[in-house]
Specification:
The complex is a heterodimer of chains A (about 120) and B (about 120).
Chain A (H helix, E strand, L loop, with lengths): L4 E3 L2 E4 L5 E6 L6 E7 L5 E8 L2 E4 L8 E4 L6 E5 L8 E8 L10 E2 L3 E5 L1
Chain B lengths: L2 E3 L4 E5 L4 E3 L2 E3 L5 E8 L6 E7 L6 E3 L2 E6 L4 E6 L8 E9 L7 E3 L3 E6 L1
Parallel strand pairs in B: 2-12
Antiparallel strand pairs in B: 1-4, 3-9, 5-6, 5-10, 7-8, 8-9, 10-11, 10-12
The chains are: A mainly beta (about 120), B mainly beta (about 120).
Chain lengths: ~120, ~120
């Protein structure tokens, strides 16, 4: 069974460009979470999605950041007009619907964004 | 609000020493989950343990052991006879039974350096 797959693993962008990070949840999982880890810090919750729905985006910056989880295909975290402060590791996690509230989260290996 | 405090920013030990990583949490939920993750230099998140709030039994897994004490809101992690391969950042995390799924709150992490 494949785990949570994230790509790209490493992404380099210049200031002002767009970054798209993709996350394919584990098979059978319909809930996706995105977390951000700034250099030398812990992980911070960004957004929680179910298929075609954003359930909780309380951790998302108000501007330039968006997330989606379409009916088909991976979840995508999109960062427009990147700035140096966006440089971080972005982790995706997934869970089964019935595991909601039990803490059964499975993390991907992360996507590391570097903004030059 | 939920909060996780890992007061030890960095710990250095010599191989074969025992080391304890502290974790103190705050939550108003009566049902919650506590986690430890390891992040080696390669950057991925490795799940170590999940403990629910109703299970205060200590757990041992090989050289790893966990001490959960609700009375002091602590969930400490001990590595016995540490090895160089244990060098990593260790994160403690908390998940409540909130309305919106498995939103983990992470501590800032403790850097463990094991020297040979």
């Amino acid at each position: 069974n494949a785990g949570v797959m994230q790509n790209p693993r490493h992404l380099v962008r210049r200031r002002g460009q767009e970054a798209r990070l993709r996350c394919s949840p584990m098979k059978g999982h319909s809930h996706v979470y995105w977390y951000r880890q700034l250099p030398e810090e812990g992980l911070k919750f960004m957004v929680y999605l179910q298929k075609e729905n954003i359930i909780d985006e309380s951790g998302m910056p108000k501007e330039r950041f968006s997330a989606e989880f379409p009916k088909e295909g991976p979840s995508i975290l999109r960062i427009q007009q990147v700035v140096r402060g966006d440089s971080a590791a972005y982790f995706c996690a997934s869970s089964r619907a019935w595991a909601t509230n039990t803490g059964e989260l499975f993390f991907g290996e992360g996507s590391r964004l570097t903004v030059l | 609000a939920q909060k996780v405090t890992q007061a030890q920013t960095e710990i250095s030990v010599v191989e074969k020493e025992d080391v304890t990583l502290d974790c103190v949490y705050e939550t108003r939920d009566t049902t919650y989950y506590l986690f430890w993750y390891k992040q080696p230099p390669s950057g991925e998140l490795v799940f170590l343990i999940r403990r629910n709030s109703f299970d205060e039994q200590n757990e041992i897994s090989g050289r790893y052991s966990w001490n959960f004490q609700k009375s002091t809101s602590s969930f400490n992690f001990t590595i016995t006879a540490s090895q160089v391969v244990d060098s990593a950042v260790y994160f403690c995390a908390l998940s409540g039974r909130g309305e919106y799924g498995n939103k983990l709150v992470f501590g800032a992490g403790t850097i463990l350096r094991v020297k040979s």
